Amino acid sequence: MSIKNSAARMFRSGLTLISPKLNTMVTYRAKFGKRLDLKNPKTLNEKILWLKFNDYYKNPLIKQCADKYRVREYITQIGCPEILNNLIGAFDDVEKIKWDKLPNSFALKLNVGCGYNIIVRNKTELNIEETKKILKKWLTYRFQYLGYSEMQYKGVKPIILIEDYLKPKVGLLPEDYKFYCFDGYAPYVMVCTDRQEGGKHPRYWYYNEQWEMQMLSEDALKYGKEASIQKPNGIELAFEYASKLSRGFPFVRVDLYLVDGRVFFGELTFTPSGGQDNGRLPDADKILGDYVNRP
């Protein structure tokens, strides 16, 4: 993180301690150049922020499902344990990890926050001492909710999760699919391509359940349907799981992996980009927002 970004995060965190709503209002105006309308929200960003202040902060199920460890219990309760990746271990103390007992390949991740993942393809090449330093730093992140006042993360205990490494037959990492879901209805999935190619800007695409490209991203408008991605094996089943996992939530982004046609659970994300995604096209923000029926 750059010094500039670090300072901005500290400033936002300080505002959250004063008032989460004040931080959200100030940050929203800085990102979008306009006042946040919580009285008559219309876009997806606005409605996510409305939900944050009117539901998420006091909803125990939201807090459970925002935790990548505790959400596993919820997934099992609703009858979908088969999509959970095998959990090798969960640790709140890095020194308790028995590295010699771990398989040759596995995945390390933090149960809260975004981007805290380490994929170990070959344990013999892993610098364990350096990795332990990183994991210990992760476990100090008890106040991640402060940056964008994501109150569903407040009080979540940081835990290191170790799971199986999901390796597809082709490529090094499984494709992840981000389903935009509205109380059991999953109209669109967002797919990111070119992410693994060094130095290349990732591209984003939206598809419906019939695997028809939607003109909801800059890349779709720029390249058109000629750039359409081949329909992945298992996507119909993934849509079914996304619908089931999202029931009861006015909005949630259901992140799933497809590995050679098999569906694996990723996470449930209630405030993507902190509910302030200024990279989303304004028209797309409005179209997606129309699907949200607030409680």
Helical run tally? 9
**What fraction strand?**
15-25%
For the secondary structure, the number of strands is 10
For the sheet with most strands, the description reads: 6 strands, antiparallel
Mean pLDDT across the residues is 91
H/E order of the elements? HHHHHEEEHEEEEEHHEEH
Radius of gyration: 19 Å
- Global outline: globular
Low-confidence sequence ranges: none
Helix amount: 25-40%
Given helix and strand content, the structural type is alpha+beta
In what order do the strands lie side by side in the largest sheet? 8-7-6-5-9-10
How many angstroms separate the termini? 37 Å
In short:
The chain contains nine helices and ten strands. It has helices at 3-18, 20-32, 44-54, 60-65, 71-77, 128-138, 218-223, 235-245, 282-289, and strands at 87-91, 106-110, 117-120, 160-163, 175-182, 185-193, 203-207, 213-214, 252-259, 262-269.
What can you tell me about this protein's structure?
The chain is of the alpha+beta class and 295 residues long. Helices cover 30% and strands 20% of the residues. It is built from nine helices and ten strands. β7 (203-207) and β8 form a beta hairpin. α1 (3-18) crosses α2 and α3 crosses α9 (282-289).
